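A quick aside before the break. I want you to see a complete sequence-to-structure record at least once, exactly as it would be stored in a machine-readable document. Don't worry about memorizing anything.
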Amino acid sequence: MAKLAFLSDIHLSSQNPLCRKDDLREVQWLKLAQVYSRAIEDKAKAVVVAGDFVDVACSWTLLPKLANFLNSQRGKIETLAVFGQHDTYMYDATGRKKTIVGSLAEAGLIRVLGEEPLRLDNWADGWSVYGASYGQQPPKPGKGSCVLVIHAPISNQELWAGQNYFDAKKYLAEHPGYKLIVCGDIHRSFDISLGSRRIINTGPLLRRKADEADQQPHFYTLSLVDETIKKISIDFSAAEDVISREHLERERAYDKLIESMQTPQQASLDSSTEIKFSDTLNEVAAANRQKITPSVVRLLSAITGVTLEETKRADSKQKAAAKAGRSSHVGDDRTQPKGQSKNPQRTAGKTSGRSKS
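That is the input. The structure line, written in tokens, reads:
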């Protein structure tokens, strides 16, 4: 019985997240291996990733490790994917071929889904899979049973005030040509039905943030024969054993400190108060008089177009020093014995020159 396995937002990384007590850089490969192993056990022909396969689009550390892993799966199961924003360097779609996912696609280790359907007739008649990477519109599906894999902010609920997202049930209703829509990007799991059609999000495979502590890693498989969808869980440790919240307390304390520094200043301002950039810059320059050299002060003046008081002060000091230097030279001339050179080295040179001739 041919099947497809779906998951999203793996976010493989070479950095250990702040919230992890263990080393997720090692754990992530065990989790990924478990997904592929259980997908193979369930007769899946391919693992399909709905974007954000990696956390950073380009990494010389991560690329060979992922390449070795996917190469070890060759002949057992295929890997299909769309690009998430984390898979896309600087969110620039034109440079995707130079990323980790793009490089692995060029090497034949990943098949990137897109507007042209991937026909699954060799696995099951009449099935096609389409893809929409981050920033792309979903393609218009053809006939037969169609699956859309998309990386976009599709959610079953608002996760924070003012969040801009597509409502999952409405999105499913607006795309009736797809029997199944698999979405990534929003790190929340949901499974919504509309008649015989469904839209699913597995949520993140790895708990990289403290607010994901309650996430239970899993993936779905779709039977291409009887169209059943099954949820398969992945082994995971209790949140209290691997997730720390200490950094959240530090962040909250920092936010309060910043707020306390800003509030008095904001409270003292009213509509009649005028803040001048030149005044502020002068204050900064004066406060750092011992640290900022006159050349830096002049550079600030040139860049900002503001004549700083510190510039005037530095110029005055320079003029005074120059004047004092001239006075010193004049005094030296007056005390010089008549007929003696002011430059002994030049005199010595001339003498030595005459002696040689």
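Two observations worth writing down. Residues 3-242 form a domain with the Purple Acid Phosphatase; chain A, domain 2 fold (CATH 3.60.21.10). The chain has two domains: 3-242, 272-332. We'll return to this after the break.
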